[in-house]
Automatic annotation (TrEMBL):
It is found in: Mitochondrion inner membrane. The gene is ND2. It comes from the Eukaryota. It catalyses: a ubiquinone + NADH + 5 H(+)(in) = a ubiquinol + NAD(+) + 4 H(+)(out). It is an enzyme of class 7 (translocase). It comes from Gelasimus borealis. Belongs to the complex I subunit 2 family. Core subunit of the mitochondrial membrane respiratory chain NADH dehydrogenase (Complex I) that is believed to belong to the minimal assembly required for catalysis. Complex I functions in the transfer of electrons from NADH to the respiratory chain. The immediate electron acceptor for the enzyme is believed to be ubiquinone. GO terms for molecular function: NADH dehydrogenase (ubiquinone) activity. Keywords: Electron transport, Membrane, Mitochondrion, Mitochondrion inner membrane, NAD, Respiratory chain, Translocase, Transmembrane, Transmembrane helix, Transport, Ubiquinone. This is NADH-ubiquinone oxidoreductase chain 2.
Length: 336
């Protein structure tokens, strides 16, 4: 699918809005950057005249406008009531990034997007709110609020993805779950959340690229995609294993480092909830992989159409190979 030239122009302004927000010395400048980012992302959603795209764009606009209104109004209280103002600003940022308990809009908006927009909403659009949240970690109370939101996001992201057949909603709840790890990392160190965010973005890029190439949006359409080579379930399985943080794939490396850091700081309760949610998310990732692996096995195959692996372009192979970099991390640790 070819995107119009204006698509790249709006993407440039979207990135510009993020840079303005994270580099602004005042909350008014932050608000301007977030509004530029919002107004640039709306055309990227509804670049085609389609009711699903229009509905998703309208929902996204209303929620983000509510978050922006809360942010700019709470910044007015900054001089008189500092703590309440910072708390309201934190809540507005949590609403903008789709963290629990303000997650209600995120799966609904994701359901009406194409896979490139799914990737942007799950990664790029969270960069500014996450960075601004890290700026607010100046008191212990705000850090505890972030940890509480992380625990809620972990459990809601895990339980919400159960028994779903729509891949975009599964990715949405998976994104909420991974956001919990980033919020915990923000409460400890900027380096941790930037590292986790980078690893998660690359893994999600490989998954959304494959689904965009296959033009599949449901679990049943993925099973019926007629890709009967054994490489098809293997590549998708490796990507989802890495996304779930299963060792020794790349997605396990940031979780491993983050768990060690949480144990060093005696954050035992968040570790328990995050690990429990990771096991639940692994379950609904396995629900995606197991059916078509069984159907495409030689003993159970009733599909006689053997098509070439047209979806395995060089770019997808390069993106998927990133999941094997986690194999080098234990070797590197042993050699030290």
């Amino acid at each position: 699918m070819l995107f119009p030239l204006t698509y790249f122009l709006f993407f440039f302004f979207l990135v510009m809005g993020i840079l303005i927000s994270i580099s602004s010395p005042s909350w008014f400048g932050v608000w301007i950057g977030l509004e530029l980012n919002l107004m640039s992302f709306i055309p990227l959603i509804s670049f085609k005249m389609n009711s699903y795209f229009s509905e998703a764009a309208l929902k996204y606009f209303l929620i983000q406008a509510m978050g922006s209104a809360l942010l700019i109004s709470s910044s007015f209280l900054f001089i008189s009531v500092t703590f309440i103002s910072l708390s309201l600003i934190l809540f507005s940022l949590l609403l903008k990034m789709g963290s629990a308990p303000f997650h209600f809009w995120f799966p609904q908006v994701m359901e009406g997007l194409l896979w490139p927009q799914v990737f942007l909403l799950s990664t790029v659009q969270k960069m500014a709110p996450l960075t601004l949240t890290s700026y607010l970690m100046i008191s212990e109370t705000l850090s505890k609020l972030v940890i509480i939101s992380a625990i809620l996001s972990a459990m809601i992201g895990a339980l919400g993805g159960l028994n779903l057949m729509f891949l975009r909603k599964i990715i949405a709840f998976s994104s909420i779950n991974h956001l919990s790890w980033m919020l915990i990392a923000i409460s400890m160190s900027d380096t941790f959340w930037l590292f986790y965010f980078s690893i998660y973005s690359v893994i999600l890029l490989s998954i959304t690229s494959m689904f965009f190439k296959l033009q599949t949006f449901t679990l049943s359409s993925l099973i019926k995609s007629d890709q009967t080579s054994s490489l098809f379930p293997l590549i998708i399985s490796l990507n989802f294993f890495s996304l779930s943080g299963l060792p020794p794939f790349t997605g396990f490396v940031p979780k491993w480092m983050l768990i060690q850091a949480m144990l060093d700081q005696s954050l035992f309760l968040p570790v328990f909830f995050l690990l429990t949610s990771a096991l639940i998310t692994l379950y609904f990732y396995l629900r995606i992989m197991i059916p078509f692996i069984l159907i495409l096995s030689p003993t159970m195959s009733f599909n006689s159409k053997f098509k070439s692996l047209s979806f395995l372009s060089p770019s997808i192979i390069i993106k998927s190979s990133f999941n094997f970099l986690g194999l080098l991390f234990p070797l590197y640790s042993l050699l030290l």
